[in-house]
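Standup notes
- HV: blocked on the assembly model, inputs below
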Amino acid sequence: SQQGEEDPQALSIQEGENATMNCSYKTSINNLQWYRQNSGRGLVHLILIRSNEREKHSGRLRVTLDTSKKSSSLLITASRAADTASYFCATETPGTSYGKLTFGQGTILTVHP
Amino acid sequence: GAGVSQSPSNKVTEKGKDVELRCDPISGHTALYWYRQSLGQGLEFLIYFQGNSAPDKSGLPSDRFSAERTGGSVSTLTIQRTQQEDSAVYLCASSLRPSSPLHFGNGTRLTVT
């Protein structure tokens, strides 16, 4: 079963607007990762936030992590049409220290030019 | 230079036939993973290789599924006596170290008719 639950399932915005996606998980984690998947392609790693971090930035991406609520959010600022993709959060399976990830169901982001 | 390469990109097979899916990881990446992506189940972990060994095969759905990795590089996922429920996109990923972010290939879309 998927540990991560993401919302919204789909998000449609105009270019230039900000997009926020949320992820909740159930077990304790070492880190949480976000990946992007363009249609028909593999997943691309975006950012990793460790359990002792609360916020992390990478370019137009901002990720927050609240371990007390077991939730994370991904904010994409000043969105572009090229940001159109599915976005997944992923957590390492507890007790492992390798890439055995549990993925959320994903948020489909559409950015209209 | 090159990313993770998977072949074939698409495979259509008849129920009951065997199929082999190939993955060429990024050179120097010691860890290799197979995941499966389907509409109903989302992204599921199948197997993890460290070098040529597979310390975690817990995600393989049945004994019809097997995988090997040779020379610490190329990996093959074999599905015997394919069933319609095996239809999915099979994604390969590699990482520099077990705990590093994953680099995914574009996947093999398997359709069992």
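- HV (later): unblocked. Chain B touches chain A at residues 4, 31, 33, 42-43, 45, 48, 50, 56, 59, 91, 93, 95, 98-107 (CB under 8 Å). Chain B has one domain: 5-112.
- Next: hand off to the docking folks.
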